[in-house]
Each structure stands twice: as C-alpha cells, then as structure tokens.
Amino acid sequence: MTRTPDPKPLARCLGEFVGHIVRAVRTSPTRGERHEVARRVEESRRGRIVLRRTTIDEIEHRPDHPS
Predict the structure, then answer these.
(1) Radius of gyration for the alpha carbons in the chain, expressed in angstroms and rounded
(2) In this structure, which long-range contacts are made by residues 31-38, counting pairs with CB atoms below 8 Å and at least 24 apart in sequence?
C-alpha cells in the first residue's frame, strides 16, 4: 500500500526555499553539481510498524580536469 505524503505547510516550504538559497551561496562552483530529478517514497504499515523506502534519482555533473 503506497501512501501519498500530506501537503507541506507554508512555513515548511519557505524554510526549504531559504535553505536552497543558503546552500547555493555556500557551495563552491568548482565542485561537481548534483541535481535531484526524482524522489519516490513508498510506505506501508504493518500493525504498529511503518516500513518506508525512499528512492532518489540524481544527475551529477563533474567538471573536466585539465590533463
């Protein structure tokens, strides 16, 4: 049984937005860049136990190194 996550409150969305901006400012432009292209969460409940699997698909671009 897959359960869709509840919608995020506005304060959470704003916090994530500010976090993305802060991370972008702190990240060195010479390091490889990773872009998350998909995130899937599967969750099932078995009594008092919750089983959750998160799958993240990323693309990483590494700059060429001079020879």
Answers:
(1) 17
(2) 32/60, 32/61, 32/62, 32/63, 33/60, 33/61, 34/58, 34/59, 34/60, 34/61, 35/59, 35/60, 35/61
* pLDDT, tens digit (0-9, with 9 covering 90-100), for 10-32: 999 999 999 989 988 887 666 66
pTM: 0.41
CA dihedral (43, 46, 50, 53) in degrees, to 10, reads: -40
Spell out the residues 6+ positions from residue 9 whose beta carbon is closer than 8 angstroms to its own: none
Beta strand extents in the chain (DSSP E only): 33-46, 49-61
Where are the domains positioned within the chain?
A: 35-62
